[in-house]
Amino acid sequence: FSNDTPREYLCNLGPDGRRRDADDRPELCRGTVEFIATKEFLVREPMPAVYFFLVDVSMNAIQTGATAAACSAISQSLSDLPEGPRTMVGIATFDSTIHFYSLKRAQQQPLMLIVPDIQDVYTPLQMDLILPVSECRDSLEQLLESIPSMFENNRVADSAFGAAMKAGFLAMKPTGGKLLVFQSVLPSVGTGSLSARETEGRSNISSGDKEAHKLLQPVDKTLKTMALEFAEYQVCVDVFLTTQSYTDVASISVVPSTTGGRVYYYFPFSALSDPAKLFNDLRWNITRPQGLEAVMRVRCSQGLQVQDYSGNFCKRVPTDIDLPAIDSDKTIMVSFKHDDKFQENSECGFQCALLYTTVYGQRRIRVINISLPCTSMLSNLFRCADLEAQFTYVVKQAANGIPSSSLSQVRDQVTSTCINILQSYRQYCASVSSSGQLILPEALKLLPLYTLGMISSI
């Protein structure tokens, strides 16, 4: 694809053959540049920064102190939310039913609205469930202080985790945003309910069952289907598991991994030591550099093509990945394949373009460019190899394979990868050396050590 260069962008060349303004234009002298997105990149007005909190108030959560720890962490984090009228907040609690709260300033105290139907959930109000934090902060702080005592005699042990997430999503559907869920027990009722697989897993492992790895797979597709809908409407889910018992993390984690979020796991949860960690994790989740409703595309030179992406995202079209939220702690791994030959000393270009909205409502495009030399000599390839990048790829591939393969198969695959790399070096780059001598490429000399360390931890 090519287009005409605007006349005002043209510039005279200097005696060195470069544009005279090359150092004054970031897009010509920097590998990473951000552009403010124009109207053609806006499907709708930039979304506000919405934070909706879901807190488990079931009997177990109350008795272990998880509810009190969650409420305290949220209350302390309110001052760290992005400043401005566009920052909005809402809250709901849940056990076997879902409790929304109207936080209008005109009310003397927050109004509780109960949703008893956990099979076909709904929001009890179209408005007043999510408000600008500047308008409802006092009411929200009062509510957070009251929730542990409001439910201190609760004897409901069930948890409608899936239904509560669905209800929170319905409240956030017009805007998108971040759904932060504090969960303490295995979801047992309503949409997305799960059954305990812990006993089955222990018996399978002790008997050497080759199918034991299937316990690391989601139990069904209910939560996955729900997560795809969340991602479509730009809702990112982060789950804080403050638990003292089995919660089926494999099934629950599908929602964060599909929506660009993550799971925070506190097991066994201690009311003495974990509240401080919970607060620090929540505060960093809110304050770290991040963007919302993001779309990413990676491009490369002709003769190369993107083979696969790996990370926490939703992929609805072949060329792009959707990220309801992206932050400084997230990594997206991209693998390429080549289907053409490259000339020696030529270069291949790679570009990553990320369209996102800042928490202050500005739509931006972050463009990362890199150009790398091509070579037809394996010795050059091994000399310039990046051990950390290569091994990160191996680790991620192994992690992705664990739910679908036995651990012995994963270990064998990791070992084979290491052997194949070193065998290729020996065969094509060091064939004149004695066959009994161990020859390692300088850039990858620690690869066997890294591989052994990884195998011993699988």
From TrEMBL:
Domain Sec23/Sec24 trunk: 46-286
Stored Pfam families: Sec23_BS, Sec23_helical, Sec23_trunk
GO MF, one example: SNARE binding
Gene3D superfamilies (alphabetical): Sec23/Sec24 helical domain, von Willebrand factor, type A domain
Record-level GO cellular component terms: COPII vesicle coat; endoplasmic reticulum exit site
Domain (Sec23/Sec24 beta-sandwich): residue spans on this chain: 291-375
Biological process according to GO: COPII-coated vesicle cargo loading; intracellular protein transport
InterPro entries: Beta-sandwich_Sec23_24, Sec23/24_helical_dom, Sec23/24_helical_dom_sf, Sec23/24_trunk_dom, SEC23_SEC24_subfamily, Sec24-like_trunk_dom, vWFA_dom_sf, Znf_Sec23_Sec24_sf
Domain of life: Eukaryota
Residues in Sec23/Sec24 helical domain copies: 386-455
Name of the protein: Sec23/Sec24 trunk domain-containing protein
The organism of origin for this protein: Aegilops tauschii subsp. strangulata
